[in-house]
Amino acid sequence: MTIVYAIIIFCLLIFAHELGHLTAAKAVGVRVNEFSLGMGPRLFGFKKGETSYTLRAFPIGGFCAMEGEDENSDDPRAFNKKPLPAKALVLLAGSLMNVLLAVLILSFVIFANGTPTAVVSEVGAGSPAEAAGVAPGDRIVSVGGVPVSEWNDIPAAVTAAKGDHIAFTVLRDGVEIQLESGFYTGEDGLRKVGITPAMERRARDLLPSLLLGCRATWAMGVAMVQAIAQLFTGDVPVKELTGPVGIVYMVGDVAKNGMLQLAQLTALISLNLGIVNLLPIPALDGCRFVFLFVRKITGKAVTDEMEGKVHFVGLMLLFALMIFVTFQDVARFVL
Which sign, positive or negative, has the C-alpha torsion 162, 166, 167, 169? Predict the structure, then answer.
């Protein structure tokens, strides 16, 4: 099942990425000759309009073959004939689709799990909240005079409160009670009073889940960009990179914890794919995007052939990196 899950995840992420390119290309009028999921020999397919939709034997990639993408074409609907904004949209659409997929998956996970309400589940023994009289089952109405609508409002209000004590308004058995609590500073440097949310009382709302999914995707994306920067500065060694073999093993481990955990990993990989593809590395969409502006500035000084050679060299280097990472993964996970 690990192999099955891994293939499904790879195909889903590749399909989403190439679908982004296809959708954008169709929207700006670029002729798409073939949209393929998988690489290698063609298994089956069909043609709709001018585009052939195919499924190929090896689920290790996919492509959206546009007229005039890698060669000069006289077709008025060729990629190379389109204005710069249209080209840029087509190139960026694949990564944007991966980011959108990550948002949707994380939003679904949050919706399925629910979001903690402002109801107290536990009060830490000896905590400032216990000394103040906060009890399990209390619903936090306001903190420091700031109204509370969800649990995520509470830490921010506690941190922002002035003075040595924090005013709490709690709803207990239908009656509002005014309490005052001290606080302590946690390991993260933030004020805490020692309460945890009632996880069995969760609100499943679509819009809040979507907003939290956007926040989670943003936080995850920032962490990824920082990690990539550290990789280039040498703060993170290359041996920490993981390729397809490592991902398969991670899928197997995470799947043991349930489908929602596997969905979170899928969102992580999708976001990673989207961000990495935006890097200005030859053969990736990010480098093709940079070349749009380089060629706009330099005119005919940079030809299709010159750009093609740069991308070819980059592709070979990426293959070499993939082989290196695969050997690392085999040594780490298999041997």
Answer: positive
Helix (H, G, I), strand (E, B) or coil at 335: coil
- The confidence band for 245, taking pLDDT boundaries of 50, 70 and 90, is confident
Q: Residue 88 half-sphere exposure, CB side, CA atoms within 13 Å? A: 10
Model pLDDT for residues 74-130, shown as the tens digit of each residue: 888 998 889 999 999 999 999 999 999 999 999 998 888 777 778 888 888 889 889
Yes or no: is domain 116-203 CATH 1.10.1200.10? no
Helices 259-277 and 2-27: crossing angle in degrees, nearest 10, is: 40
| Residue spans per domain, the chain | 2-112+208-275, 116-203
CA 111, CA 206: separation in Å to the nearest integer? 7
Say how far apart CA 128 and CA 199 lie, in whole Å: 21
Burial class of residue 288 in the structure, from the number of CB atoms within 10 Å of its CB (0-12 exposed, 13-18 middle, 19+ buried):
buried
- Known active-site residue 69: no
Instruction: Write down the catalytic residue from 18, 150, 200, 305.
Output: 18
Q: Say if pTM beats, i.e. exceeds, 0.90.
A: no
